[in-house]
Amino acid sequence: MARRKFEAIGSTADIAFLLLCYFLMTTTMGDQSGLQRRLPPIPDEKQAQDQKVNRRNIIIVRINSADKLFAGSEAMDISFLKEKIKEFLTNPTNDPNLPEKEAKEIEGKTYMVSKGVISLQNDRGTSYQAYIAVQNELVKAVNELRDEFSRANFGKKFSRLTEDEQEIVKKAVPQNISEAEPKDTGKK
């Protein structure tokens, strides 16, 4: 009888390695999504000394380790946060306890711009879910104000504006959210 010649095709490990290389080279990774924040420019020493923020222009939003939310000095449910922030930033009744507005010239037109700053503080024990939910509400408030401004001044939603028009809206309705280092604030 004739003997058959067995040719080695390759070991299983070699085949697995080649498949792994193939999939690593052909697979694309999804885009990372995250919170978009623009850091302020680093001020020089003289500018840092001259810059003082009026207390009425800041609202402190805190989340404690029990995921309880405080906006200003009052405890609240997250469903009311967006409206509270919108009222804070717009100051519709010119309340002396809410932020000042200043006339700013943007692209040849003068707009009343809020000096309001949202200071977000959380505890080290705050759950990620509560933190993200609060972040979402803060950004929703700013986005709704930008949409309202866009409709009033350009007759269309913010997302339908040109890039130049969007820049005007961003300057007129700034997203000033300051985040502090997490602390151990305890339960309140």
Tell me about this structure.
It is a single chain. Helix content is 36%, strand content 18%. A 5-stranded mixed beta sheet has the order 3-2-1-6-7, with helices on one face. A two-stranded antiparallel sheet has the order 4-5. The chain has a domain at 52-179. The protein is an alpha/beta fold. Helix 3 packs across helix 4 (128-154) and helix 4 packs across helix 5.
Give a nutshell description of this structure.
With 188 residues, the chain is of the alpha/beta class.
Describe this protein with a few key phrases.
188 residues; alpha/beta; five-stranded mixed β-sheet; two-stranded antiparallel sheet; 5 helices; 7 strands; 18% strand; extended
Q: Rg to the nearest angstrom?
A: 26 Å
Structural class: alpha/beta
Q: Give the amount of beta strand, in percent.
A: 15-25%
Sheet bearing the most strands, described?
A: 5 strands, mixed
**Separation, N- and C-terminal Cα atoms:** 89 Å
Overall pLDDT, averaged?
Answer: 83
Number of strands: 7
Strand order of the largest sheet: 3-2-1-6-7
Helix segment tally? 5
